[in-house]
Amino acid sequence: LFRSRPPAVATDNPLNARPLTGRQLVVLILVISLAALDGFDTLSMAFVAPVLSHQWGLGKGVIGLLLSSGLVGMAIGSLALAPLADKIGRKPLLLASLTLMSAGSAMSSIASGVTVLAASRIATGIGIGTMIVLTTLLSSEFSNARRRPLVIAAVATVGLPLGGVLGGLASSFLLRVSGWPSVFLSGAIVGALMLPILAALLPESPAFLAARRSDGALARLNAVLLRLGHPAVAQQPDEPDHRRSHYRELFAPDVRSTTLRLVVVNVLIATAAYYVANWLPQIVSDAGLTPAAGSFVSATSTLIGLTGGAVMGLLAGRYPSTRLAMLSMAGMAAGIAAIGFVPASLAMFVAAGAGYYFFQSGTTGIFYGIVATSFQPLVRASGIGLVMGIGRITSAIAPAIAGWMFASGATRGEVSFIFALGPMTAAALMLRTRSKPAKS
């Protein structure tokens, strides 16, 4: 299964061999900004949870339900809505998902009970889940072949975490000054402000238009190319992509093994990532350090580790992405094991956490790039949505499994070793992948 060669993806993106222009960079900056907004909105419920727990008298079970509601929405968005981008285009769905995300955040800010808040977080999550797929898709399709790995890595490993870091700082201030509703409201306002900017500055994807065979598609494609500062083309690619957005197409004989491989690998690495993200502060605290030290280790490690995505993105221009992914996943596994076995000191936990996040950041950027370039243009959103959606569903149970293991008496070393097996297995699967990732 994992030795089969993924299908050759037609190099029908007219931007592939052309240099990046200033107008393309504007589009990519907008995409990174959207990813940062996604990062903030994803964590906004976690930012306000301690306050709501006190003001509303909520137990941990209810707080857990509220935190999970956003994850449920994100899975729905990735699996159910993101494939529409292969039918109606990238831009219309992006604007619709941003509208839904902003509306959900606004509704969250006026919620007066758990039921309304959970429903609003699901709506927000649907918008976020759809947008995360689209930001990966747009970063791939608005870059050229040479810079694509670096651009995708920047969006996946800088935009999302940066939004979480900046959002955490902003939320700390807003919670002191205005109360918890202002955290949700700020996300809604930023989203609403971005809507007209995106409507004016973001064109439709050239790769999507190049793969279409509808009336006027060539004229629309050339209009976008001229807008981006590139000359027009005389005709569309000679061999059109006849696939259409449907999950059945992702399991056709020539792509089935690629789809299954990517889904399995993403489940393995995402499960490990959710374990560390949710339990690292508690692990540090349980080792005898203060809760503040746990938060410090988590934040510091994340910031240091952000460089991993950029480093791997740069190396991807010179070395096969599958081999870099294998090395990053193996490093990620080693980092998780180190978190479980290092001596209980602040410096050692920071070192282990930074090493883990360096390779986790690199894994995310490289793997997202492989996913984005493994599917034909008119099933690309469906493919990315399927891989990310299933990974989000399965990895959401990772924190609960870890909690059960700790409650059963397992040590941090034992639990961490078990979770390290996920990315190590994923690395082995990438090692057995002998083909190079296809270009978009």
SSE layout and pairing:
Blueprint: H1 22-55, H2 60-81, H3 85-88, H4 90-109, H5 114-141, H6 148-177, H7 181-201, H8 206-211, H9 217-227, H10 256-286, H11 291-305, H12 307-315, H13 321-341, H14 346-372, H15 380-395, H16 398-407, H17 412-431
Helix pairs in contact: 1-2, 1-5, 1-6, 1-7, 2-5, 2-15, 4-5, 4-7, 5-6, 5-15, 6-12, 6-14, 10-11, 10-13, 10-14, 10-15, 10-17, 11-14, 12-14, 13-14, 13-17
Description:
The chain is mainly alpha-helical. The protein has 17 helices and no strands. The protein has helices spanning 22-55, 60-81, 85-88, 90-109, 114-141, 148-177, 181-201, 206-211, 217-227, 256-286, 291-305, 307-315, 321-341, 346-372, 380-395, 398-407, 412-431. The longest helix has 34 residues, at 22-55. Residues 1-11 and 434-439 have low confidence and may be disordered.
Described by the principal axes of the CA atoms, the overall outline is globular
Computed Rg: 21 Å
How is the main sheet built? none
Based on helices, strands and strand pairing, what is the structural class?
mainly alpha
Beta-strand portion reads under 5%
Q: What percent of residues adopt helix (DSSP H or I)?
A: over 70%
Gap from first CA to last CA: 23 Å
Q: What do the pLDDT scores average to? A: 83
**Helical run tally:** 17
